[in-house]
Specification:
Strand order of the largest sheet: 1-2-12-3-13-16-14-15
Structural class: alpha+beta
Number of strands: 17
Helix content: 25-40%
Order of helices and strands: HHEEEEEEEEHEEEHEHEEHEHEEH
Bound molecules: zinc ion
Strand content: 25-35%
CATH class of the largest domain: Alpha Beta
Radius of gyration: 20 Å
Largest sheet: 8 strands, mixed
Shape: globular
Length: about 325
């Protein structure tokens, strides 16, 4: 799976501009689904039939980025965020636009006690004038983090593991599932990072009986970290709550039972912030029981997100278990 993850994290596909990663995923799953289609918002849906219960499994294709709002007289780009960007972590990092233009983040001098905000930052694409900058990039273009994939053995580091790791898990589960017992809708969603938008239309179209998102979650296992029980390498995380969802008890029990029965390492997750596609799925039509299989991830929303491949494998096995368990 490492090669698949490397490929998926190497493309630049910010929210609303998911074409490159969607093409890559389509290529990977073509032989493994009964039907594949795109909805009008751009979600990629792969159906595999096997039973009456409709199960929507969602992983988001988009990644965070920055969008050019203005180009100043000296050719520095000013920008706004696409998804959750932490200004404190940007200076010195690089970003890349769809046309290949690369820039480095810089910051204005701050007064004492002044907080670093996005309006104090700029992107330097090496232009010597506004005119030269405008030849490379226009207002409204979106750049994503530019950082290479690093293989640390059992652990890997890359940008956009949020949520290309979820995409990789869903692709791998689709390849492995031998005996689907439910009507599966593996959905690669758009625009999660800007408000769970793709999941909303996908779920409306599919009208599922059960929804499960596959996405990353924060950890509490680094020096002086925020108190969170989640640790890298301790298994797939079964979400209990975040800011978008209280997992339906039936779904929490289902995932816990399947993990126990199949000897899949797991941990319970309570995240005091954030949300995933399941937050939108559960509110579809008259309501959908929903939950999340999470992958513990350090340094979320930075160019260097880190996951443990043992957790990834546990998540794949848990997704396959859901696919192969008759839920009628
Ligand atoms: Zn995510």
């Amino acid at each position: 799976m490492k090669e698949l993850i490397r490929k998926l994290t190497s493309v630049s596909s910010p929210s609303g501009r998911e074409e490159p990663v969607r093409a890559l995923i389509k290529e990977e799953i073509t032989k493994h689904a009964d039907e594949i289609w795109e909805d009008k918002l751009g979600n990629l849906i792969a159906a595999k039939h096997g039973g009456k219960t409709k199960v929507l499994l969602a992983a988001h294709m988009d990644e965070i980025g920055v969008i050019v709002t203005d180009i100043d007289e000296q050719g520095f780009l000013r920008f706004s965020n696409v998804g959750g960007i932490n200004p404190q972590r940007l200076v010195g990092q690089r970003a890349r636009f769809a046309n290949g233009t690369i820039g480095v983040f810089g910051a204005e001098k701050l007064e004492e006690n002044q907080k670093l905000t996005l309006s104090k930052l700029y992107l330097d694409i090496g232009a010597r004038s506004a005119e030269e900058a405008r030849q490379k990039v226009s207002v409204g273009e979106i750049a994503t983090f530019y950082h290479e994939f690093s293989d640390l053995g059992e652990r890997i580091v890359a940008k956009a593991l949020d949520d290309r790791i979820g995409c990789a898990i869903l692709i791998e589960a689709l390849k492995r599932v031998a005996n689907p017992q439910n009507d599966l809708y593996c959905t690669f969603t758009v625009q999660e990072e800007v408000g769970l938008r793709g999941a909303r239309t996908a779920a409306f179209g599919i009208d599922p009986d059960l929804g499960i998102a596959i996405d990353v979650t924060g950890t509490g296992d680094t020096p002086e970290a925020e108190r969170l029980a989640i640790k890298l390498g301790q298994g797939a995380a079964i979400k209990v709550k975040d800011n978008s969802l209280i997992t339906h008890p039936m779904v929490k029990d289902l995932l816990t039972d399947l993990a126990t029965k199949n000897n899949i390492p797991y941990q319970f997750e309570v995240l005091p912030f954030g949300g995933t596609d399941s937050g939108a799925i559960q509110l579809t039509k008259a309501g959908v029981p929903a939950g999340v299989i999470s992958i513990p991830c350090r340094y979320l929303h930075t160019p260097s997100e880190m996951v443990d491949l043992n957790d990834v494998e546990a998540a794949v096995r848990l997704v396959v278990a859901v696919m192969e368990t008759k839920l009628d």
